[in-house]
Write a structure and sequence with these properties.
Nitrilase/N-carbamoyl-D-aminoacid amidohydrolase; Rossmann fold; about 20% strand
């Protein structure tokens, strides 16, 4: 919690319909388990104290009396528990019965959130027993204590102002304008949902997309606790499908048809940061909702949620193929428009045999195909220098010829040596000047060829290089249209692989082996002579790059 991460739990206890004593015991056991595992916000299903499928038993005074007593008993059980806990319970107020999510903290009933939207269609007929909650929250007296009662209550952590929790109940989130919408606009960063949603074919996928969508619209964490098999009848089956989402992404979900607890950590500070950046997320100008403080210790949170090592690259092959095809098309369509608007007769691409320049050439080829311009009007320029290896050179040459672009070779060694003499630099000093001079010479060549051919220089640098400043001023950081600037290096690798093999299917039978070798080639600027004596120099240059943000040289790719 010190760093903004709040451990959350969605718990489905084993219950028996109308057996309040049994349910209370199991809820308390699960409170023990979740607190012991470090959870600070814990959510139980809708009406879990009695069971959701009690039907007309909800009309019985004895059941309602036992439920109310159980509520106080569970609240008292939380005295020594460092958590904000939500349980579902039926509650009679002023002669009417309400479906309520009770918020408990350190032995206190902090608030009673009412269900706003009661389903009365299909297999549901809640309006037979319950009344919709009031339009606005108010205070009621329960066991001699005044407690807020109604929708959109805000529970605010005293020790962590970023953590503001609000509850809604099952059908509420399925409605056109869920109560959580206003709660979030008044500051709620985490929404909890006590639910009893039965299983039908295809419903689980829709349920998960619904929770993801609401968490995305509200830029919030969303904890959804669903009823399990104890609720199942001969007519309905409940699967205990628990979900915890954050800003459009499911962080954790349970196995269906088993009573489980799921845990993960919600990054509350990140959510607030995203809200500040998103100008369409507008907070309410006037605060009208009741805010209730709760106590929770701020302590180190051991992270269990996983962060993808390659977040931009889908792990599922089919999804990755689709994304790569989409990205390539977006790149090509953007370049197509620029070429057409500029009335360019050619495009000039520096080809090193590395990943980035390969992708840039593939994009340019697709753009030319879309425009109906012969590929021969693409000037693919290889510029071997001091560090160019046979492997990258051969791959560059073979790639250009396989794709049908114009092959141009301009060695740079002599021109760079002349430049060294002009500025008084010793060739055996392999420093930043040595490396950047080559990058600038290559850019000059590309620009001049573009002028000569009436074309545009296509930039090859990717998003990772831009973010790190991995480019040479007045060198490869300059181009007339850069096609890779929105794509991180990890995704570049996948794109080159996928696009290359797509082209093989389209008849370029010789391109796959070239692409495979380009991918297998270690990433290197190739600006230092390939000699063991340069190992120390290379390391020193790397250290210089790490310290000097925008003075770095470019990767050859």
């Amino acid at each position: 919690m010190k760093d903004g991460f709040v451990k959350a739990a969605a718990a489905t206890p084993d219950i028996r319909v109308a057996d309040v004593a049994y349910n209370t015991e199991n809820i308390c056991k699960m409170i023990d388990e979740t607190v012991a595992n470090g959870a600070k916000v814990i959510v139980f299903p809708e009406l879990c104290v009695t069971g959701y499928t009690c039907s007309d038993l909800f009309m019985q005074d004895i059941l309602l009396k036992e439920a109310k007593e159980a509520l106080f008993k569970i609240a008292d059980y939380t005295k020594e528990k460092d958590a904000l806990i939500f349980i579902g319970v039926p509650l009679a107020v002023d002669g009417e019965l309400y479906n309520v999510a009770a918020a408990l903290n350190r032995g206190n009933i902090l608030g009673l959130t009412t269900k706003t939207f009661l389903p009365n269609y299909g297999e549901f007929y809640e309006m037979r027993q319950f009344r919709p909650g009031p339009d606005m929250a108010r205070w009621i007296t329960l066991d001699g204590k005044k407690i807020p009662f109604g929708p959109q209550l805000l529970f605010v952590a005293e020790q962590m102002e970023e953590l503001v929790v609000s509850a809604e109940i099952c059908e509420d989130v399925w409605s056109p304008i869920p109560p959580s919408t206003l709660a979030a606009r008044e500051g709620a960063t985490v929404i909890v949902n006590c639910s009893a949603s039965d299983e039908t074919i295809g419903k689980a996928a829709y349920r998960e997309s619904l929770i993801e969508g609401q968490s995305a619209r509200l830029i919030c964490g969303y904890i959804y606790a669903n009823a399990g098999e104890g609720e199942s009848t001969t007519d309905l089956v409940f699967g205990g499908h628990n979900i915890i989402a954050e800003n459009g992404t499911t962080l954790a979900s349970s196995n269906r048809f088993s009573n489980e607890v799921i845990y993960t950590e919600i990054d509350v500070k990140r959510l607030l940061s995203e809200r500040r950046k998103n100008t369409t997320f507008q907070t309410e100008k006037e605060r009208t909702l009741i805010r209730i403080p709760f106590e929770i210790h701020v302590e180190e949170t051991e992270l269990t949620r996983r962060f993808a090592s390659r977040p931009f690259v889908p792990s599922v092959m089919a999804e990755r193929n689709l994304r790569c095809e989409e990205i390539l098309t977006i790149q090509a369509m953007g370049l197509k428009k620029r070429l057409a608007h500029a009335h360019a007769k050619s495009a000039v691409v520096g080809i090193s045999g590395g990943l980035d320049s390969t992708l840039a050439l593939l994009v340019t080829v697709k753009a030319f195909d879309l425009l109906g311009i012969p590929r021969e009007q693409i000037a693919a320029v290889t510029m071997p220098g001091f560090g160019t290896t046979d492997r990258t050179y051969d791959n560059a040459v073979h790639l250009i010829r396989e794709l049908g672009a114009e092959f141009i070779e301009v060695p740079i060694a002599d021109a760079v040596r002349l430049h060294f003499r002009d500025i008084g630099h010793e060739e055996n000093i392999h420093d930043v000047t040595y490396e950047n001079s080559q990058a600038r010479e290559r850019t000059q060549i590309l620009m001049d060829i573009a002028n000569k051919k009436g074309g545009l220089v296509i930039g090859t640098g990717d998003l990772s290089e831009l973010a790190l400043g991995w480019a040479t001023y007045n060198g490869d950081h300059m181009s007339m249209y850069a096609v890779n600037t929105s794509i991180p290096k990890t995704l570049v690798r996948s794109l080159v692989n996928e696009v290359g093999h797509f082209m093989e299917v389209d008849g370029f039978v010789g391109i796959a082996p070239i692409i495979d070798d380009i991918i297998d080639t270690p990433v290197s600027p190739e600006l230092l002579p390939p000699h063991p004596a340069n190992a120390e120099t290379t390391n020193a240059a790397d250290r210089t790059r790490a310290k000097t943000f925008f003075s770095f040289i470019s990767c050859s790719s």
